[in-house]
Amino acid sequence: MQVTDHEEFFDYTLMNVQQFYYICDLVRPYLSKRSIRTPLSVELRMAITFEILARETSIRSSSWNYRIGHSTTHKIFKETCKALWIELFNRTDRTFGNEERIFNYRLSRARCVIENTFGIMTSRWRTLRRDLCCAPEIVEDIVKSIVCLHNFLMISEDDITLSDRTLL
After folding, report:
1. Domain count of the fold of the chain
2. How far is CA 150 from CA 79, 86, 97, in A?
3. SS3 sequence, 8-25?
4. pLDDT tens profile 17-50
5. Which domain range does residue 96 map to?
6. Where is the DDE Tnp4 domain (predicted)?
């Protein structure tokens, strides 16, 4: 996948090119296919998924955009969200401590910020602005992958130097 317009790429995927390829490399073991037919690349699978998540595009529209069957696009979206959730969640350091007091404090803080968090998520990931007409298990994978992607992008934005940002 050749990227020439970094600004348009960011508008499309909500991440820079380095972040995109880094995520592709992380989920490649989960999404690489072996088939008699030529399989779709991991990069294409990720682009389809990010189009649906970030641009509020329907699965049907995405299948038309990429000239892929509707059921294939649906399967790609489901598999990619699950792979993102598995890989990105495993990379997070989630140690909350064992003491009940610490747990209760963090739980109450989490309840206080849920509405703000969902507002931030819906402003970035437009697919959350509409009904997700999927099975509950798929919706769960979609939301979990969005949370992990959002956290990954927020953390990795700190790693980008000022000179790298001017190239985007």
Report:
1. 1
2. 18, 14, 24
3. HHHHHHCCCHHHHHHHHH
4. 899 999 999 999 999 887 788 888 999 999 999 9
5. 6-167
6. 91-151
